[in-house]
Design brief:
mainly alpha
Length: 168
């Protein structure tokens, strides 16, 4: 499942990027279809696709639950799904803002430059969250290693964005 998820994560922007990059030629070839060079024009369809996939997963889960195909409560504690609504909506809103920022970055930097920057961001955030909130990192040496890793990731992101230049 992780391999499939990683592959889909890697190609999720390819189609919109192709349309943004080749919008002039593609629009000229068609009288009906008009494409846009702006990343923000593709955010809505991307987010609707994510919402539809979430709905499909929910329906599959509910069908499995109806026929008793989900793990029983003897292995897992019962879940109050009502408590999950607000965090789920918040996660969806944050994800939508992130995808909008990703399209904006693709528009301005290109896919080759923006993907490594965006792929490193969640790792930095989750490491900070684990170290500061959940106290997963102990000792000065480990914090120094973590800080060094953050500095390297930030430097790589800055150098990647500066390397873009105006060479199209």
């Amino acid at each position: 499942m992780a391999l499939t998820s990683g592959c889909l994560y890697g190609i999720c922007m390819n189609f919109a990027q192709h349309l943004m990059t080749n919008y002039g030629r593609l629009t000229a070839e068609s009288d009906f279809y008009k494409f846009s060079p702006k990343g923000v024009d593709y955010v809505f369809s991307n987010n609707v696709g994510a919402m539809c996939m979430s709905f499909v997963v929910l329906v599959v889960y509910l069908v499995m639950q109806k026929f008793g195909l989900t793990p029983s409560e003897k292995y897992f504690e019962p879940v109050n799904h009502g408590k999950l609504l607000l965090p789920a909506f918040a996660a969806g809103a944050i994800g939508s803002m992130g995808s909008a920022a990703w399209f904006f970055a693709n528009q301005n930097l290109g896919l080759v430059v923006s993907f490594p920057i965006i792929a490193a961001g969640p790792g930095v955030v989750s490491s900070l969250w684990g170290a500061l909130v959940f106290k997963e990192v102990h000792g000065i040496k480990n914090f120094a290693i973590l800080g060094g890793a953050f500095i390297m990731v930030i430097m790589a992101a800055v150098f990647s964005s500066l390397a873009k230049g105006d060479k199209h």
